[in-house]
Amino acid sequence: MKADVGLQQDTKLLRSSVITGSGTLCSRIFGMVREVVFAAIFGDSAAADAFFVAFRIPNFLRRLFAEGAFSQAFVPVLAEYRNQHTKEEIRLFLAHVEGGLGLILALLTVVGVTAAPLLAGVFAPGYLDDGSKFSLLVDLLRVTFPYILLISLTGFAGAVLNSYGYFAVPALTPVLLNVVLIGAAVWISPMFNEPALALAWGVILAGLLQLMFQLPFLAHLKLFVCPRLNWSHPGVSKVIKLMLPVLFSVSIGQIGLLLDTILATSLEGDGAVSWLYYSDRLLELPLGIFGVAIATVILPTLSRQHSTGQAEVFDDTLNWGLRVLTILGLPAMAALLVLAEPLVITLYQRGQFGPDSVAPTVGSLRSFSLGLLAFMWVKVLASAYFSRKDTKTPVRYGVIALVSNMVLNLLLIFPLGHIGLALATAMSAWVNTGLLCYGLMREKVLHFNYSWLKFSIQCVTALVGMILLLCWQLDTVENWLAWDELQRVLQLAWLVVSGAVTYSVLLLLTGFRPKHLYP
Fold it and tell me: Lower Cβ count inside 10 Å, N or C end of the chain?
């Protein structure tokens, strides 16, 4: 009986995850087209470095306010309101949260635009000696910084829609950002004396369009409300209480990437920031499709199960999420490691992104890839804490992970340069994952039983077979560089498909069945 109920629950979660993952896949495909266009037009030039730094700062704040701390703190409280309050009380709660969030973000935007030179000096100290590059970064920051206001309100709307089961709309929303930036790069940038400024204005336009896209769906749910300000509202107080520590704990990975960017600006010559950016974007493809999709779907479910006292079902749901991420994340991680050169050459090597840019981008991609499964697990493990309104424990573990990242950065940047920065980020992600697992096991919230051993053996066996096949089929870097566009695409597609089929068949031959995702 328990298995039947669990299987039904898993089927519902899987369906929601597929919907979210499909929307995210669409967004990531457009995002990858965007990066291909950026690489061809801007390459790893000084202007590209400056734009990526400028975009990283509001994007980092977006992860904190929109996808990170706010969402993790807001969704459990909204789940509680849905269980215990009337529709009108929910609308009032949303209005007060929207008003408080909007005011904070508006003030932050004013400070960011005004203090752009100071921010540029803090986040890109290596540019202080290059007057033209620093001046461009300041101009880009002033244009892009208001994005944090628009995209965080979009994140607020998306969190509400996710809580009510509308997963596809928030997942598809980032497509607008990618489409606008592609248009800005191809058609608008040639009209500017400084082409990178066209991208900055494209970011603002995209933020506005993304917010407007979600509003009709909120209106359909009768949850489109006008902002109101009341800091003493009990729901707002709960969100703030949860959000303050979560601001740090859920964003350890992003803080690590931001530290990488800061240190990369200090490396000699141009390109380090761009190499890290392009490799990080490839990592974001599987992370967004699998990790973000599962975490987005599982947070409201875990929150609801905790609020209704279903401790055993909570454990089963958490195990299900980790197993799904493992079975999908391992082959993705291996593919990024083995196929790093073909991926970078096929996607990026054209126009201003020359053959000399391939090797440094491949190096950082491989280093980042070592932490892919950890990045995925962190998203679900953190959700287990926040759904239980435990924010202090992840903060403690997050501090340890961040300190380890900083120490590893300083140890590895000198012998390995930008590759050492990427490797340090991956290693600190595993530190964070291990600590989060330890905490949940100590509190008897997460259990790894014997079935995990069998499951792990099945995954590793299939993974080894896939890696051997890919290595056997892989051609030399010289040949990949010599091939034309079509030959590269066809060969890469064959490697991806054959690897995926081999992994799936070997999983089945080892005895794995989808029902085994349920512990």
Answer: N
